[in-house]
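Hi W., the S-adenosylmethionine complex you wanted:
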Amino acid sequence: MEVAEEIQPSTPQPTDEAISATDSKPTEKRKREEEEDGEASPPPAGGARADPARNPLWKTSLCSFFRRSAVGHCSHGDACRYAHGEAELRQRPDKSWDPTSERAKKMRMADRPEDPSEEDEAVDVNSLDKCVTGLSNKWISDDLKRFLDGQGILYKSAKKKKGMSVGFVLFEDAEQVKNAIEVLNETSANGRQIKVADANRRSHEKKHTTVVTESHQHNEDNSVEDVEAIGNGNCAAEGLGPKTRRVCDVVTPLAHMSYSDQLEYKKNSLSQMLKRLTKNTRKACPDAVPLPDWISKSREIGGLPCKLEGILESPLIDGYRNKCEFSVGQSVEGKRTVGFMLGNFREGVTAVEEPVNCPNVSRISCKYALIFQDFLQSSEFPVWNRVDNTGFWRQFTVREGRNPGQTAIAQNADAAIAEVMLIVQVCSVNIDEELMKNEFKRMAQALAEGAASSSPPLPLTKLVVQDHKGMSNAAPADCPLLPLPIPNIGDPTLGVSITTEARIHDYISNLRFSISPTAFFQVNTLAAERLYSLAGDWAELSSDTLLFDVCCGTGTIGLTLAHRVGMVIGIEMNVSAVSDANRNAEINGIKNCKFVCGKAEDVMGSLLKEYLGISQEHKEASEDTETNSTASTSSEEMLLCEGSRSMGVPEQKLEGETPVDSKNEDGNNNSLAIESLNHETSECSNQKAEGTHVPIGSLRKCLTECNETTQDNEEGKDARQDNSKCINLNEHNTEGENRGKGNCISEDKNAKDAASVHQFKDVVAIVDPPRVGLHPIVIKVLRTHPRIRRLVYISCNPESLVANAIELCTPTSETSEKGQGNRGWRRMSNAGLARQRAKNMPNSEPFRPVRAMAVDLFPHTPHCEMVMLLER
Ligand SMILES: C[S@@+](CC[C@H](N)C(=O)[O-])C[C@H]1O[C@@H](n2cnc3c(N)ncnc32)[C@H](O)[C@@H]1O
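Structure:
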């Protein structure tokens, strides 16, 4: 089935299926597979085998031909990339061993209790907090309670979050625990085996936690042990052998490799992923249509859809992150800690550990985490408890802004940091306002003193409190976000520094960017500069180019390329980011950029129509867009869209688990807070309208009293003026009803702009979507508009890039074979869904992949950005 095929590990493994039991020679099937994987072809330039000895996966899996052959023979001889026997076998980059090897088996045996019955007994019946796995993701606490009641299980309380297969149950005594273990371990729900296990017991606590989790969360290799080790947090705390995990292994799992090996590793896994584009497009190509040339030629480059030209290094390898979101919680030993979670909550992990030895975290961020942690030891307010969602101190974010000038930075990263903004996230539920106000004063004092007494002193320019009362990790858009005054430690006679607008500044390509606290900004500024300039080069821009910057954030791509094009139209759904983009255009004196506030799927069709006119081919897609924007998309389309967003690519940010490099995390977690305070009369968008009525509540009152802040705009401009340039197409989609109140540009001006852009000879789109990729409607609109000849796709998630590219590149036929509708979409992989949608694509000229390049924005982690040029 498709699913199994799509979810293969990115590293190729010799499979038993591929082996004839009686024949030691490679079978036809394996030969074919190897050809597709480039194994039997000459190694591609920049491909996986350019220098096998340096490939970090070299000989990390056992060769199954060699093993099966009676005489220990494999036709690839010494050149075989798989290990010929245990002696040749190397450890994998993630420190695991081939799971079929003797070493891996021995390790599994060593970790297993001698008496299998001990496995059940390993659950401590005297611990009353238990964690249960195997529950339906859809369940909430009430469902769990009903289920337990139905099983006749007595307990004190039960909690479960939607979207997780794990629930937490607190019992009153050991009898109840024993009964629950007996009943639950015999029980399945929705066909899944339910399990009860101790989780995350802290050695200082008398009570213990049991987790109910589902067995299918564990993958085949050693991660089962890892997850359980974390689940049984007491093992780590009490040093019970190999079942320990260090925070740096979780956050920066590649850090033990040399940087050149990391790059090689990423390039190899990206090239495996890219091959799926070829395979899936081939599959989706209608029978009546010849295969595109690029597919026929892919054999010459090892099955790749286009040349993978290499990987650009990050200029800064250590401490490159300009933003770290630290979780606040308790360590395995029960100490109040500011750092990263050792795993995620779904795995039953709630312990937070200090960010020590995480090379991607800057020295400044690490120091601030420690300063805040020290302060928390003396705070009367509780830290956040992820099991019952209670507590006050939730999260601590450090954002850094640099001085301009790259050389200095590479040599001394710290010295280049000119600004630091600290964002402290709290939950003010049931907290006394007066006490809270005093606590914030104490906190500001502690942070300022800590910064001043560091050697060298740390910059501290903005201090902000965000009050997030919800349960989810990501704060919603209307979450109050208020600046605090910073005590002037160097010269107390100066009093406090009044924090004006909370924003941070950074430089890309010598342009100054002013960034709201929660707006998306790439976390590795210097590498992002390389990424944007590569995208610009590949886009072949000229003064005749009209550039669409889709998902533009604070305008970084469009603004850095504005001098190379006639006009830029940026599209972004986050109000604060659009406001930032306009401000950034203004402070850099850039006049040929327009930023549109709205979801790309809602506004793209109208924009293309308005700026480029409409063709017959484009009509159908355009109509879809309009339908979508009026919230009446067909149920099938909705399901397929929903499917793409809920499958394969994790959308949810795992709080403080790692300094996540994902885009949707930043991109979708943007808050209106500051904007809502400062620009309350803006009419820029529907979102803005929501943001103008923020229920600020007690925290604001409290902070207003302790913070006599003047809300000056640092650039000396009124942000409301910036917003006046913002085009709102949320209310602007359908002809005839598109001149609503919310529009920030006049009809005449629209018409004038539209008339002038029709003169552009060249239309290019650069898309930089969040992790989930582009909305299917955006893909359809781009694909069906004949004037868009070149598309540069920037992606932090190669899986969604491949899925989107399948739709953009699969040929259509006049008599298109319609897809099977929405049947089975839940079980489909991203690529499977994309093939399905490709079948429903209106007949239109497909794009072809021309070239691809990886850009490493996230050293020491498996993440990587990728740029792909598509043309037609
Ligand atoms: C990866 S970021 C890229 C931002 C920008 N290009 C940059 O490099 O700074 C993705 C951006 O897409 C925005 N976004 C997410 N979904 C969107 C949608 N449906 N329509 C428009 N923008 C969206 C997010 O708010 C975020 O700013």
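The first strand starts at residue 129 and ends at 133.

W.
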